[in-house]
Amino acid sequence: MLMGRDFLTLADFTKEEILYLLDLSKDFKKKLMRGEPHIYFAGKTAALLFEKPSTRTRTSLEVACVHLGIHPIYMPRSETQLARGEPVKDFARVLERYVDAIIARVYKHSTLEELAKYARIPVINALSDYTHPLQGLADYLTIMEKKGFEDTKIAYVGDGDNNVAHTLLFGAAILGLEIRIGSPKGYTPNKTVLDLAEKLARKNGNKSRIIITNDPIEAVRNADVIYTDVWVSMGQEKEAEERLKVFEPFRVTWDLVKHAAEDFIFMHCLPRHEEVTEEVFESSHSVVWDQAENRLHTAKAVIAALLPH
Does residue 151 carry a catalytic annotation? Predict the structure, then answer.
């Protein structure tokens, strides 16, 4: 169904394709729980190019590869010729002769696009400045498991113009969910992202509703899902002091979540910092560990769907 394709953003996929990946993720999860081996790609290899450090992304991808029978080759950018100025297009054309897939965690989304343009093997986005589709797929698997997709309202509170917020927007637009982005002025999703999300909703003919607000209470009111992310992402350290002041009213506290649905779930892609209180994070509403686990199952689904059998 998806064999040979790249996985750069959820926006490249239809509702049927995303649901297929989610169902495949659930199947891999069941296999692991039952102890059923699923070594479908013995002898294949994957290059894991990482420009940014990681815990969940690297570990989930390496374990996913091993479970599928794929040998993962971890490649910090600093240990490749890219660090000495080798063109990305040259790097891509060399790697396609050695490995069966390139999985890249990069600073600039344009790097992924260039890898995909020149490599004739699947390229998988393990995070870019634009979007984080592996995380998004795990997020929607978690929401599917905990709440389902019927009339589900998602509230994202924090920096609305980061890769996680973009991904949640694209997923909600495609799947037909209501999503509210609650962000300070100047930190809402950019027009290009919003225009694409609205286009995706129309293209998929669904009832997705996108709400952008500068009021965190309005964002979470009667929400079934409350999601937040770090206020200072990698590369924004110089802005840290200013961001902490601006985002303070958007901290996910018990006073804020009391406006949500009584049985809301709290989600966070991790690692956490000052954007959520301990009281909310450790509450019975928190599903962050199930969410983190699902990174493994969705990684397997993406890799298995894209690689030639």
Answer: no
